[in-house]
Amino acid sequence: MGKIDFVIMWVDGNDPDWQKQKQEYQPQRGTDSGSNRYRDWDNLQYWFRGVEKFAPWVNRIFFVTWGHVPQWLNTQHPKLCITNHKDFIPDKYLPTFNANPIELNLHRIKALSEQFVFFNDDMFLIRPVKEEDYFVKNIPRDCVIESAVMQEDYSNPFGHMLLNDAALINMHFDKKEVIRQQFWKWFSPVYGINMIRNMLMYPYHKFASFKFMHLPNAFLKTTFEQVWKAEPDILDQVCCNKFRSVYDINQYIMKYWQYVTGQFVPQKLAMGKMYLAGYDTDEMLKALRMQKYKMLCINDDGVEDNNFYSIKKQVKDSFEAILPDKSSYEI
Fold first, then answer.
1. Rounded to 5 degrees, what are φ and ψ at 307?
2. Residue 149: its pLDDT value, please?
């Protein structure tokens, strides 16, 4: 088993210098730049506590940032690599307030290992995980479940991006040939009842969409290199967008590329779950306190401004109940 790094992106939406720069580039319409894209839940310390307690085997952590770091972060930690956007993203794409150019260029981080797990800052480890939960014989673990429709609100640019990702995959790969070559990866019994989805979708000639699970993704750097080689112009156009738009593609193109090239080992769906904090608050807090899953995503969608501080406190109290001790990543 090769070394496995973790990558996490973070932005301090309260940083006045960052706010000033964002305002300079802020368009009036046509992009996704709502406050929930950037506001701080003040729970990042629990991400580090979870990693130290539940994934002590991690090789290095690449903390990707615009330039700011939390005051409490131990920047001298031997496993921690503070990585500024300027360190790896081509100058022509900077500054960016769009997560997609950041995610699509991760392979340019020179010291990053071939095998890495990518986290958004709303994804947490709340139970022990093993290296084999992410990679087996240096191949990413994943579950490929095809869907007829995207389980996203189409008024949200993210849903459009995932459809754009699938469309790009169809431009390069023949669905029947892909499944023929790796039949047992697409119809693995580890998917349980969800395998029926792949059976129902099999007659269709194109990939429509895939089951969306907003959880940490295991990637190979070489996958990013392959996609950039295949579609340099489209990726370049996306990376020039300062804010998210319905025309973007995102990191899931890399995930889908690993699906269709067979660069994955089937995995159960029960590893983790995403909760929409504004809609699933009670269930989410219960799952967190009971440590129901290995990985949990606490997504900001649906949280109204007038409820934000109340839900934020409940989330933080729940984390404190299961991860009360400071990690060595904290001063």
1. -105, -10
2. 67
